[in-house]
From TrEMBL:
This is HTH lysR-type domain-containing protein. The keyword Cytoplasm does not apply. Belongs to the LysR transcriptional regulatory family. It comes from the Bacteria.
Length: 299
């Protein structure tokens, strides 16, 4: 009978394509993991991996075993999740990647709610842009990520919309353009401080000007730091184009939205994770809380 421990070792090597990286994930030495794989190969009487200078590549036997081993792992995780659910208590550690737009409001509220319901779930929260976070999610360094980016078109992941945000042209209170209707052409008379052009909604800003045969704003300052952009706008005549959830406009008398005659843009805040991550009880709890908070913010 195959040992579940050896199957876990096999799957780690299979999924990571490297014995070294699998050792890091499993907290094993390389000799111990190599021995475990050899014992599994001896037990089955076949070679599961071909060793190459670039790592390990599964053989036809390795691919066949992986399909069944994943099913076995799913059953184990299902059982564990169901037991934790029946106990009414989840334990574990969840690593969440977040975009700047959820750092101020959504995630702090979700964290407080989660720990009222499940105080034994530990969170690690890492802020970044989608280009930084997606590779980490792919490598398994993140359990899920949430932010203002379009759904990830990759069969490895599932993506769902948590809520719909709204983009605003933002300036300091007392700005020369504040408190009156503003034409798009007037915005070009002031310096802009913007996120990187890789942000999908940043590209939408250009389109709003091009459709009026206007040159898009040229950013005098570009930064991926939401805190820096906010501080700069608050203390100068720079203007920006930012999601409402990134700021606290309802409670902040130092910043205002400008009344610009332009189409309202509403980017989605999406949550992305591996489908099988939902078999982990602690990740399920985080996902459910984020869904609930998203519904509250939308309502």
């Amino acid at each position: 009978m195959l040992e579940s421990r050896r199957l876990r070792h096999f799957l780690a090597v299979y999924e990571l394509g490297s014995i070294g990286r699998a050792c890091e994930k499993l907290l094993l030495t390389q000799p111990a993991l190599s021995k475990s794989i050899r014992q599994l190969e001896d037990e089955l009487g076949v070679r599961l991996f071909d060793r190459t200078p670039m790592g390990v590549v599964p053989t036809v036997f390795g691919n066949a075993l992986a399909r069944h081993a994943k099913s076995i792992e799913v059953q184990f995780r299902n059982a564990e999740a169901q037991i934790q659910s029946l106990k009414g208590k989840a334990q574990g550690h969840v690593t969440v990647g977040i975009g700047p737009s959820v750092a101020r409001n959504i995630l702090p509220v979700a964290t407080r709610t989660l720990h009222k319901l499940q105080p034994d779930i530990a969170l690690t929260v890492i802020e970044g842009l989608v280009d930084d976070l997606l590779p980490r999610l792919r490598r398994g360094e993140l359990d899920l990520m949430i932010g203002s980016w379009p759904p990830i078109a990759d069969p490895m992941f599932i993506t769902e919309t948590v809520l719909v945000d709204r983009l605003e042209v933002v300036a300091r209170a007392g700005h020369p353009l504040a408190g009156r209707p503003v034409l798009r052409s007037e915005l070009l008379n002031y310096p802009w401080a913007l996120p990187p052009a890789s942000q999908k909604w940043r590209q939408s800003l250009d389109d709003l000007f091009l459709e009026r045969a206007l040159d898009p704003p040229k950013a005098q300052v570009v930064s991926n730091s939401a805190g820096y952009l906010e501080a700069l706008i608050r203390s100068s005549d720079h203007i920006s184009f930012l999601p409402r959830q990134l700021l606290d406009l309802e409670n902040d008398e130092g910043l205002v939205t400008l009344d610009v005659e332009m189409e309202t843009l509403e980017p989605e805040i999406t949550m992305t994770l591996r489908e099988r991550a939902l078999l982990d009880a602690s990740i399920c709890e985080v996902v459910q809380v984020l869904r609930s908070i998203g519904a509250d913010f939308t309502g």
